[in-house]
Amino acid sequence: MDDKTTVIGVGLSKLQFAMQILMDVFHKYAKEDDKLNKGELKCLLKTELKELIDTDSNPQALDELMAELDCNQDGVVDFMEYSFYVAMLTVLLHAVKHTPPESFSTQEQHEHWQEQQQQRCPPPTQQQQQ
Ligand SMILES: [Ca+2]
Ligand SMILES: [Ca+2]
Asked: Does the domain formed by 31-122 have CATH 3.40.50.300?
C-alpha cells in the first residue's frame, strides 16, 4: 500500500492537509520516541528531500545539518526543530519562486537559512542567562 494515501481525513482545508502531512512524515521516520536520530534524519532527507539536500555525495552535510537543527543539543531532532526546518525550507522555496534562478544560488539559500537559524538559536554562551 502506498503510505502517501493512507492518512488524510476528508474535508480538511489545504493548509490543514499540509499540516497533517508534516506530522505524518515526521512520525513515519521518528518512530516510537517521536524524535529523529541521525539515522532517521538521514532516511527522511534521502527519501523526502533528496532533490534539495544530497547527503550521499556530501556526507559531512548530514552532520552539519544535524548540528544546526538540534537546537537544544540533546542529540536528536524533535518535532519543533523539524517544523522550523521545514518552515525555513518553505520560505526559501517561496523566495526562489519569486526570484530568477540565476540570481539566487543554492549556496545563498543555505546561507540565508543559516542566518535565520542563528537568530532563532543563539550560541550556547548567550543562552542560560537567567
Ligand atoms: Ca526515533
Ligand atoms: Ca534536539
From this structure: no
Q: What is the pTM of this model?
A: 0.73
Ligand 2 mean position, distance from CA 18 (Å): 23
Q: What confidence tens digit (pLDDT) does each residue in 31-77 have?
A: 999 999 999 999 999 999 988 888 888 889 899 999 999 999 999 99
Task: Dig out the grid coordinates for 68 from the structure.
Answer: 544546526
In the numeric block, the cell 532563532 is attached to 120
Q: How many CA atoms lie within 13 A of 31 on its CB side?
A: 10
H-type helices in 1-130, by residue range? 14-30, 38-48, 59-69, 79-97, 106-120
Q: How far is the CA of 31 from the centre of ligand 1 (A)?
A: 5
> Could you report the per-residue pLDDT of 107-130, keeping only the tens digit for each?
776 777 778 777 777 666 655 555
